[in-house]
Fold these 2 entries.
Entry 1:
Amino acid sequence: LARGSEPAEAAEEEEDEEEENQEQSDQQAARVEALQETLCQAVLRRFPGMSLRALATLPPLRDRATSAEFNLLLQCLQLASEDERWLEAVAVQLRRSGELGVQAWHGGQQVVRSLADLAGRGHAKAQDLLVEVALGPAGDVSSSGAAASGSGGAPCCEREPRVLFADRATECAVCFEPLYCSFPAFFCGADGRRACVHYVCSACADACVHAKECPICRKEVASRRWLPSPEADPRGWFEAASDGRGTLEAAELCHAVSACLPVSEDLLMKAIEHEEGPLKRSWARRGGGGLISEEDFFDLDGGLFVWILAHRRELYRIQKRGGRVPDIRLDPTGWFDYWDDAGAGILTFNDFLRGVFGSRQLESLDCRTRLHAVRTEAQELWQAAGLRPDGASAGAFGAFGGG
């Protein structure tokens, strides 16, 4: 009889445990609902401090945000245009999505464009948050919303390390100095619209206006304007590059990008127009007749804004590092330190690959077949040396580099 009662007792215990779990789940759901109501009231009454207290106790998102959560986020973004304190509430809400990334918020594009608006109005917090949302907390596109979505279809140029070469920079047509080192200017006609697609450096712009013509195409000009920063005012950058039309042609984009980055215009054009080009997938994705819309541009899943922003961050790393790259064969420790941007004493495989691309004079716009071959070769070297997948210390790498 005792043995016969054991299954019944086990079933009863299991049933009690299920009831207890359900009760805890119901309590948690009720608690979250109460916190959401508190947050809603705080937003309606415009109490940023109260909002932050409610957000601090909300659990992380396990799935995409609900419509109610998304609308509250948009309201906070709208309030931030009048009171910058609301940006902290926006940041806390966005970080609730964790590894889901900004795409948990209905794709994230509306969030990015709202942050871009705030960044263009000079809100420094919005500029920082925009970089975090687009590239991830580490400023690395591999941890951005596009990568976190698990789409697996990101363009090759997003998966490869970003490497820039100063000798590929577009020069000012007047003084022959690199455009990206200055504040690029463009010309407007008497009607206030852009006179042409060209740019010159800030030091030469006024002289060109005085001469009343573009030094490249000789079109008549009446004034000059500065090209906004793609980080500080990305929507202003797009508007200036597109002359306010809301769409960009390939040539317009190439001129604007090469004005703020040391990249080859020819390679960029091929990446956009060629069927096998790494940026072909992100160009005119919505049937725009060969034009890229602002919606295409800000798309986190392969949009060109993410590409430009990621390469601008790499440009700052290069300027911070300075100097020549040490020869890995002669000075493996110096080579390690040069590519260890964080100074953490650990070189990840991606850092190593970035250094290899730099040594081979390869950038993410180059031939995809060659990029893949070099990546495969680097992976084989890394594995053959027995280096850890999550990174190599200076000592371990020194032994590998010296060999």
Entry 2:
Amino acid sequence: LAAAARRGPGGGASKGSWPTGTLLTHDTPVLPSYCSKDGPPHIRCGSTFSDQLANVLSGGAASASSMAVHVEWGDADVAGPFTLMVRCRGIELARAEVAAMHQALVLEIEQSDASPPLQPGECFVFELSWPSGSRHLHVLAPLAPSCLAHGSLVSVALTGAELANTKLNAEQLMAPRFPMRFSSVVRGFGIEIETLTALGPGRLGVDATGAVNPGAGAALDALVERCVESSPPHSLAIARRCQSWVVGEDNAIVPALERAAQLAAEAAYPAGSDHAKRARQLLLNRGTHKTEFKSPAPPTELSFGDGAADEIRCMLRLVSRVGVAAPSIHQTHAIAAGKMEPEGSACDSGCAIHVHINVRNVDARGKVLSAREIVHVVLAWVRFDLVTSRFARAWYWREPSCA
């Protein structure tokens, strides 16, 4: 309906949308929309987001603020006229038209055309339409250096002297930085945190037959024991729960690109310092374990109604003192192939945080969801996809496993 409205009364091209208050009836023509798998024509962007990202990470300059989108006609045989338009936040920014196929149809726009400026994760929507069909392409705004936030991705382990001078208190470890309000919905969930941690002896008593016993587990337990004398009973109980997290290996974790590791290390510590060098080694998987921290399974899983927020904060702050790195960008398809590949290019992250919501396990907290209720959740995710993407770092917008 929206596509039909933008073409104006009678199906002819219009410079704007329908007047406010116009009612679309059952007689209003509706343009079918096809997946690109149905064949040409296709809308192509001259510079994809991952191409721009690859350029920045290889030491190149930041991308220009403009982008050009064109139509590839291929072997399609459909009748025109054809209209290529772009909109942002539902507002049309520009359009171009041709009468028939195989004529040049291009739109070039500046990022400044969007007012207010696009925020991270927002995109331009390009639409190619003709009397019998349409195509759509969502394009992220040109990459800005400010999108590449490399801070808070690495923390080197405390040295013996630093540890001796540090007084650990569980209550301080779980103290929130900002005021928080929790949902009243009781629901159990689990967290998996993929990281690179420093080598070391693993937990005592853990059967490591056929599996890696990362040193981070023993180091974490030792830090919890240091909290015993200085922590109130309630806080200490939550810190003790951190010892029930599984500390294992995940071979899917991979090191960061050299340039990404350098940027992350320099964002955390002064350039050239011993800490910066150690941080870089962590990020590049030199002298490390590929470590995954897993919260307990049902029936003792995390729940915000049972202190999960405090436990997660405590766990993360303990892990940061153990020495941990979260490799950001492992590779882009463009870099891996040695050339730019606009079609299908993406950005692969080195690690991730996974959250598993318990909706079908009868042993977990919360009501078991029906199939219909689960479909509602999926549809809500699709609806708010562009909203949730704004909470992710720039490279996750095109991470294949997170799309």
